[in-house]
């Protein structure tokens, strides 16, 4: 009792024993609760950090300052992608306790929870990530770099962090956030059949045509629905060049082509002016263009006087003007 009542003794006494770390309640969904904080200055830049409590998905923004306007801008940018969270946890920095930021949170119906001063463990989600970020940057950055190079390094770090299984959840932040794995360079080492798995359901249903096979292809000019010809060439997996009975070449999708019997005779119909070619070989197109630009023999380049064409229709005065003399 004497020691507890001694002023000088109390001024030099040790801090009380630390209580057992109390964990935050588990978030039930993505962006239910997010933790925010600033890191830096580091190499002349600050880093605004936002971590989702459910998936451990981090967002990092390189900034020039730590003002409230910067915080609001980066939060608004993140919320536009992932939605508005229910709770935001931060420390008591001026940029997080300002009127502008408080008004921003109130406008979006966000509950703001702050930590005790000088007790960063309360905001452990953001603090632990910041320590990991600092270690990664120190390993990569030994000299002063510009913002472009710094941004590249941060993005590379984020890709690795987001695709690495987290110690708490057992899955990567990307899988927890999007319910899928993000593609990385490590996927290049996987067997090739993984990339073809998405086409298994359609491989057995794709028709194929043989070169020289007699077919009819869909016509979109005039009233004749189908034109007949033979398959001349296959382009890719689903497109073909069909040489029609009239000599023209059309490019058609497999869904626009139907096979017919080989005994079907050739049918050459009179083509209308609307029946233009769908496909012309490059050499044929070049010849047609050259012929169009060539002047016929015997015609000079000088300007010619053209006589206006007049109608041969008989002109008559309307009946309502019958009582008048028209000059």
From TrEMBL:
GO terms for biological process: DNA integration. Pfam families: rve. PROSITE patterns: INTEGRASE. It comes from the Eukaryota. Signal peptide: none annotated. InterPro entries: Integrase_cat-core, Retrovirus_Pol_polyprotein, RNaseH-like_sf, RNaseH_sf. GO terms for molecular function: nucleic acid binding. Residues 272-327 are annotated as: Disordered. Residues 316-327 have a biased composition (Basic and acidic residues). This is Integrase catalytic domain-containing protein. Residues 281-309 have a biased composition (Low complexity). Residues 13-181 form the Integrase catalytic domain.
């Amino acid at each position: 009792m004497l020691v507890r009542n001694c002023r000088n003794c109390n001024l030099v006494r040790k801090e009380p024993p630390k209580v057992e770390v109390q964990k935050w309640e588990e978030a039930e969904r993505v962006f239910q609760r997010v933790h925010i904080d600033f890191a830096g200055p580091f190499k002349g830049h600050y880093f605004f950090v936002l971590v989702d409590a459910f998936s451990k998905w981090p967002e990092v923004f390189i900034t020039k300052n730590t003002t409230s306007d910067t915080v609001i801008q980066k939060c608004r940018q993140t919320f536009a992608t992932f939605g508005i969270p229910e709770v935001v946890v931060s420390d008591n920095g001026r940029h997080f306790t300002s009127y502008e930021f408080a008004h921003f949170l109130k406008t979006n119906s966000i509950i703001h929870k702050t930590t005790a001063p000088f007790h960063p463990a309360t905001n452990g989600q953001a603090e632990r990530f910041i320590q990991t970020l600092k270690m990664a940057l120190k390993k990569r950055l030994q000299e002063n770099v510009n913002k472009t190079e710094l941004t590249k390094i941060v993005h590379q770090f984020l890709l690795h962090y987001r695709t690495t299984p987290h110690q708490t959840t057992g899955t990567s932040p990307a899988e927890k956030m999007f319910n899928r794995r993000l593609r990385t360079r490590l996927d290049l080492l996987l067997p090739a059949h993984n990339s073809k798995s998405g086409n298994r359901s359609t491989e057995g249903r794709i028709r194929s045509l043989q070169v020289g096979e007699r077919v009819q292809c869909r016509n979109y000019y005039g009233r004749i629905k189908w034109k007949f010809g033979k398959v001349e060439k296959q382009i890719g997996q689903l497109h073909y060049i069909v040489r029609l009975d009239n000599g023209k070449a059309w490019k058609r999708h497999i869904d626009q082509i139907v096979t017919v019997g080989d005994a079907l005779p050739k049918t050459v119909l009179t083509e209308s002016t609307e029946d233009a070619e769908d496909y012309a070989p490059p050499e044929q197109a070049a010849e047609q263009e050259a012929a169009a630009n060539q002047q016929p023999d015997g015609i000079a380049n000088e300007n010619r006087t053209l006589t206006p064409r007049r109608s041969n229709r008989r002109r008559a005065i309307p009946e309502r003007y019958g009582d008048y003399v028209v000059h």
